[in-house]
């Protein structure tokens, strides 16, 4: 997913700049803002759990593994909605 951050952001910025002065500027700004939220959610919400799960022993997961997975799922759902809105 991080591979898409830079190209998607640059494309959104260019398209927003090109739409300046047009009637779709508000939509472009909304898409740019939701893209920023999406990137924030991905970095803050999912990188942590992905990094932590690499060290988990499948036979002996941490006591709070279910809570950690559920929290990450909430970030995934929010991130998906941000993508749909953008």
Gyration radius, in Å: 17 Å
Number of helical regions:
3
Structural classification: mainly alpha
Instruction: State the shape.
Output: elongated
The percentage helix is over 70%
Strand proportion, as a percent range, falls in under 5%
Give me the strand/helix succession: HHH
Main sheet makeup: none
Supply the number of structural domains: 1
Q: Enumerate the spans where pLDDT stays under 50 for 5 or more consecutive residues.
A: none
Q: End-to-end span in angstroms?
A: 16 Å
Q: Can you describe what's shown?
A:
By secondary structure, this protein is mainly alpha-helical. The protein has one domain. Helices cover 78% and strands 0% of the residues. It has three helices and no strands. It has helices spanning 2-18, 25-53, 65-85. Helix 1 (2-18) packs antiparallel against helix 2 (25-53) and helix 2 (25-53) packs antiparallel against helix 3. The chain starts with a helix and ends with a helix.
List the helices and strands and how they pair.
Elements lengths: L1 H17 L6 H29 L11 H21 L1
Helix pairs in contact: 1-2, 2-3
């Amino acid at each position: 997913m991080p591979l898409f951050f830079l190209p998607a952001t640059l494309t959104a910025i260019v398209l927003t700049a090109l739409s300046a002065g047009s009637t779709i500027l508000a939509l472009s700004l909304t898409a740019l803002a939701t893209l920023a939220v999406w990137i924030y959610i991905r970095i803050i919400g999912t990188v942590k759990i992905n990094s932590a799960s690499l060290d988990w022993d499948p036979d002996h997961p941490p006591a709070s593994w279910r809570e950690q997975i559920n929290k990450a799922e909430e970030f995934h759902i929010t991130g998906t909605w941000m993508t749909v809105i953008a």
